[in-house]
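Pipeline run #58 for the internal structure catalog. This entry was flagged by the ingest filter as a single-chain record with no existing model, so it goes straight to prediction. Upstream metadata was stripped on purpose; only the residue string is passed forward. Reviewer on rotation: M.T. Logging verbosity set to normal.
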Amino acid sequence: MALFNKAFARLLNAALSILGSLVLVFFIIYMMPGDPVLSMLDPSTATPEAIENMRIQLGLDRPFYAQFADYFTNMVQGDFGQSLITSEPVLDKILLHLPATLALTLASVIFSIVIGVAFGVLSAVYRNRWLDSAVRIIGLFGISMPTFWSGILLILIFSVQLNWLPVMGSDSLAALVLPSLALGFVGAGFIIRMVRSSMVEVLDEQFILTLRAKGLSERLIMYRHALRNALIPAVTVIGLHIGELLAGTVVIETVFSRQGIGRIVADAIMSKDMPVIQGVIFFSAIVYVIINLLVDLSYSVIDPRIRKSAGTR
């Protein structure tokens, strides 16, 4: 019963989070300056009557609550609407560009986790030595550098100077390398700091000294006992980082000219294409909530004590 109540509370919080994001984004877009009708019609040739008729046809003349009610009703029914600029169904537009964004996000997450966990463990094991200092400097650079700056720097080095990798595109694995490095380097910096901090704390625990006294190898202690106990806070950071990666694709896909949902939402913001912006935000909110739920479930897999405590409540 306790597990059921906990699962129900999580689902309720997830639904409220998605609803709150919808209301907030719709309000922000509604208050943005500019008129999407002027992006569809040429103001120099269109008559005021034509512009007003287009606004009425799109329902933009209605008050905020009426527009939101129609949008929410359609969204629940699976209708994301149509782009005001291209008249293309928003859901089809998202699904068309989704694979490129998922590939970029997945590659960035893998890079962040592998580099972050490996360097974080090394930094903790060799703490207060030169290797620890070097890894901490790398992590600081990862956190401090904006993604657009690191992306441009990678382009200058590996594309312009060395001519090893393509500058732009989303149709090959080679074109995925630079944007995934630029996007994943930030997350790697956070994970390095978190894993190092957690590992240092765990390595000072009494049970580590007991395992060493029993004669267990240092490798077994590090990777089977210490790292597993140190991964809980790191998993939290990784889950939050995946959500940040979805937002970061807007900048990276623009820098590298990748045709993903980050690029289409950037174009939609410039033209105030409200259905496209709302559709992408709604989709991103769902993905973010699902990731948080998976992170919560992973806690009990990493640390059985959490699963046992949840079952006894």
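catalog note: The chain has a mean pLDDT of 77.
catalog note: Residues 218-255 form the longest helix (38 residues).
status: ready for reviewer M.T.
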